[in-house]
Design a protein that fits this description.
Blueprint (H helix, E strand, L loop, with lengths): L11 E10 L5 E9 L19 H10 L15 E6 L4 E5 L4 E10 L4 E5 L12 E4 L5 E7 L5 E3 L2
Antiparallel strand pairs: 1-2, 1-3, 4-5, 4-8, 5-6, 6-7, 8-9
């Protein structure tokens, strides 16, 4: 389509979270939205397509791209599925200097940001949401909320 047309994929069924070890031995997190039309597909693209920060990372991610320019979330490419996030799941996202928690609302594929809502909030208006990036996160956990309102790790 030469970049002139737009296809609406609809809402995501869930968001797959992958981790991949970099050249320094640290794990980085990546996301791949799972749409209804892609449920039975073997390969799902990481979105946004990783570009890499260092020269070595850029070379590595360019090598992983397919003929359409997408990086697929496969074990052969070093991606390990660590979580599936569904709407309203409670997330605890750890960063080097802080922790962000909230209910999952949506994921921005253009910039790799989660939109979360506070536990005590009722509005899903964009101005009330917490926006946080997956790129800098060091850990992500999906927590269950008990009938009494306590949260605990999902097993």
């Amino acid at each position: 389509n030469h970049g002139t047309q737009f296809a609406d994929n609809g809402k995501t069924v869930c968001l797959n979270i992958y981790r991949r070890q970099d050249s320094t031995g640290n794990y980085k997190l990546f996301a791949a939205p799972l749409y209804l039309h892609s449920i039975n597909k073997k390969d799902i693209p990481i979105l946004p397509t990783p570009k890499g920060r260092s020269k070595e990372e850029k070379i590595e991610f360019n090598r992983l791209r397919n003929k359409n320019g997408l990086t697929m979330a496969t074990p052969e490419n070093g991606f390990e599925l660590i979580a599936q996030i569904f709407p309203n799941d409670y997330l605890k996202i750890t960063y080097p200097d802080h922790v962000t928690e909230g209910y999952y609302v949506k994921y921005g594929v253009a910039n790799g940001t989660f939109s979360l809502i506070h536990h005590s909030q009722t509005s899903k208006a964009d101005l009330d949401l917490i926006h946080c990036s997956i790129g800098e996160a060091t850990e992500l956990k999906v927590l269950n909320i008990s009938v009494l309102g306590d949260n605990y790790e999902f097993e």
